[in-house]
Task: structure prediction
Amino acid sequence: MTDTATPVTVDGSGAPPARRRFLAWVSLGLASLAAAAVGVPVIGLLVAPLARPVGDRWHPVGPASRFRIGETVKVTFADTQSTPWSGRTAATAAWLRRVSDTEFTAFSLNCTHLGCPVRWVAGAKLFMCPCHGGVFYEDGAVAAGPPQRALTRYPVRVSQGTVQIQTSGLPIT
Amino acid sequence: MAGSRLGTWLDDRTGIGALVRRLLDHPVPPRVGWRYVLGSATLVAFLLQVATGIALATLYVPSTADAYQSLQYITHDAAFGRALRGLHYFGASAMMILIGAHLARVFLTGSYKFPREVNWLSGVLLLFLTTLMAFTGQLLRWDQDGVWSEVVAAEQAGRVPGIGRAIAHFLLAGDRIGGPTLTRSFAFHVFFIPALIFAGVGLHIYLVLRTGVSEPPEVSAPADPRTYRPWYTRLLEREGRPFWPSAAWRDLLFATVVLATVIVLAWVVGPAPLGKPPDPTLVDASPRPDWYFLWYYALLATVPHWLESLTMVLAPVIAIIVLLALPFVAGRGSRHLRDRPWAPVIVLVIVGGVAWFAYEGGRAPWSPRFGADPIAAAVVGTTAGPVSDGAQLFHDKGCEYCHMIAGTGGVRGPDLTHVARRLDRAQLVSRVLGGGGDMPAYAGTLTDAELQSLIAFLESRR
Result:
């Protein structure tokens, strides 16, 4: 075996190693660029919902005179953020309680344990969750079961005799 | 003869014939028996899902407005629609059971050891992807359970520290259930995850052919990197037999039995029933996951509060890490159960635990029984007076949702059929008013007269 001064091993193309290395890097670079050019809009579309500004509106749910003091009722209204193809899922609801002549409280339907819809059991004056048995008092405080937090409240106001609720997205607890 | 000439020409230009012959003739070790049919049956179940899934996708409308109606149409009107939904539903169940059984078998025969570590890793990946398919598939049913499963999944993801909210909104495709929620689950269920499964299956089969089927531990040599490969090669030369048909007949027979079972169940039992419509304002819901997630649902109702977020976030991560680490921690040495007596114990504990939690999940003793009928007059013993009034209150105030009397009512709290034998009047009053444990306090809910009647009723329960 003889050592040559320039250990140029030449492949079929006759290109020296430095040139092959350069070509390899250019090829990989171009491929990465192309992948990124396609990947940005694909990934961008998927993560866009994370950045979407949440503009929550006030939803009218009925004249104040319809609600009796001490009663808790379900109010339903259309979600203004829904898409045209949302169908029935565009409907949303809250538990509305008239505490006094002027004071209303609105609770999210979602149990603070894992989000299942709590039911108002009027006789017991309790909210009960069908999933894992969470129970809340009429003021939303935890009464029993796995939940650790009171029911999420929505802001309520009475404007020109109409009760309005400001909802936000699913409360992630 | 024209056919044979065409075949020769095609084989000459493509080499496919040679490839197929190599696949069919690859030698398998001796005494490879019925234990080795689970992987191929899982693959057959997957192919069944692909075929039935494509058929269903030709009618299913992945929009939150119309998905439910399109499923009603598929189930009740479309030709073979009900059968196809049934096949897809029981096919999913078969795939979950078979992939779990295959995993257990590979663990028990120590087949994850050298030189088949990456076979195991690709199998763990496929298990993870299959679980994702089961979950997203359940959502696509887009009835009430589908909607609330999506909500519960988002809430669970929300427990991840720091990025929980972001993951939840990624799953929901927004900050609430809406139009984009279903299309996202649909795209993952029919395009993204199946593409990964195809790739994973390809890798898995390639590796099985490359490393060879693991020999049953009775004839096994210890998995020693220095000696195993030459030993295995000699074993195949000496006693190996071609896969087709010496081993393949068992795979085909078992897969046929699996398919036949799925077909019979699909026709006789039918698909998972569609629940109420996907209307988030309908609060008369009792969301339950499909059977393969019931054990997890039960686990979340059972663990103490302080363990809850850990169970939701850390436990799945730990489970995946343990599975991935296994071939690196225990990748060598004897594969025989005689030298690994803990292996069947681990499998039994896991299978037993999952079965027990799944049973509890089906019973859901922690859930209030909203539909409980009032206590029968015969049980109450009277139709007038405070005892009778109390019995009515026991129903109206929701006591009965959680407490059973003479077989009627919930099982969340203690059975009160004979409560007066254990508790005196003062104790009863104290429990009702003050609550405690997992019982709400009724102090602000009952008038004095109501309390007297309720206590009178409970005191009559001897």
Q: What stands out?
A: Chain B touches chain A through 66 residues (CB under 8 Å). The longest helix of chain B spans residues 179-211.
